[in-house]
């Protein structure tokens, strides 16, 4: 991930060299909110056109809503005063001498959402720019990784979704990438199912608005054994969970029938033996 942000810096440097607005503090990158998933990292851009001696430079990153100091560069050193940002907020030290004071924030939490201001002060002038972080969330979880079912029985494969964004698509697939059932743009699409699962796979419609996209698979067959993946997509994020369907043995009904057949056979054999003995006597 660190290397990917290095390439972002290279693009930012090129953008600034080609700019002609004469600003002290220049901002490159998206003009809208920076969409970040929980636990990920984010780069907040802040640069000056012409580098200045480090001893003449002071750079502050603060939360605009609370004036909390996130990170400070002063007297040639980086300092962080706020405990909740300690070890999470960083400059790229090798870039400071080139006029790049972008903030790299790691392990983003819900509390990190908000507006951040980069203020740059030199002996001759000052300037600032802002960046907005919007924290998004998509967590997809299942139950136990392995579930069991008897042949001919129904089984439920769990998939629960917790998302801050609107869910655009949920698709259940097998490990052969065969579609079992699909939900898209607010509708269940039973015709999307492969013929092997058509009429046997269903969601729980009353539970969908709660983020429950568990799958009921009816009349389990031997060929159903294997991994099933629940893939969830929003406009920004994708995530998935996998459930293993195993132990496709005889169902309880089949076992009971088999036992009854064995008992009936034993009774018939006993009765036959009894009749034979009686006839001999």
UniProtKB/TrEMBL annotation:
This is Ig-like domain-containing protein. The chain crosses the membrane at residues 252-277. The keyword Disulfide bond applies. Residues 39-134, 152-246 form the Ig-like domain. The keyword Nucleus does not apply. It comes from Denticeps clupeoides. It is found in: Cell membrane. It comes from the Eukaryota. PANTHER family: BUTYROPHILIN SUBFAMILY 2 MEMBER A2-LIKE-RELATED (PTHR25466:SF14), T-LYMPHOCYTE ACTIVATION ANTIGEN (PTHR25466). It is a single-pass type I membrane protein.
């Amino acid at each position: 991930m660190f290397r990917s942000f290095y390439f972002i810096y290279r693009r930012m440097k090129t953008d600034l060299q080609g700019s002609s607005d004469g600003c002290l503090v220049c901002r490159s990158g998206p003009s809208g909110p920076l969409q970040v998933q929980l636990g990920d990292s984010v780069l907040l851009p802040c640069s000056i056109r012409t580098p200045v001696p480090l001893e003449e430079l002071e750079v502050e990153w603060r939360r605009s809503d609370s004036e909390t100091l996130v990170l400070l560069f002063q007297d040639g050193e980086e300092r962080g005063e706020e405990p909740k940002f300690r070890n999470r907020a960083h400059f790229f030290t090798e870039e400071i001498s080139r006029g790049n004071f972008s903030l790299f924030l790691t392990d983003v939490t819900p509390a990190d959402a908000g507006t951040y201001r980069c203020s740059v002060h030199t002996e001759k002038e000052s300037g600032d720019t802002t960046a907005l972080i919007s924290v998004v969330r998509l967590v997809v979880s299942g139950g136990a990784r392995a579930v069991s079912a008897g042949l001919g029985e129904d089984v439920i494969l769990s998939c629960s979704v917790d998302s801050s964004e609107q869910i655009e698509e949920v698709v259940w697939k097998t490990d052969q990438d065969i579609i079992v059932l699909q939900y898209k743009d607010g509708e269940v699409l039973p015709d999307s199912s492969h013929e092997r699962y058509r009429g046997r796979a269903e969601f729980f419609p009353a539970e969908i608005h709660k983020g429950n996209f568990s799958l009921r698979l009816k009349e389990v067959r031997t060929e159903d054994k294997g991994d099933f993946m629940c893939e969830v997509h929003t406009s920004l994020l994708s995530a998935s969970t996998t459930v293993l369907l195993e132990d496709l043995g005889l169902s309880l009904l089949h076992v009971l029938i088999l036992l009854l057949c064995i008992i009936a056979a034993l009774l018939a054999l006993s009765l036959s033996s009894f009749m034979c003995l009686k006839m001999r006597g």
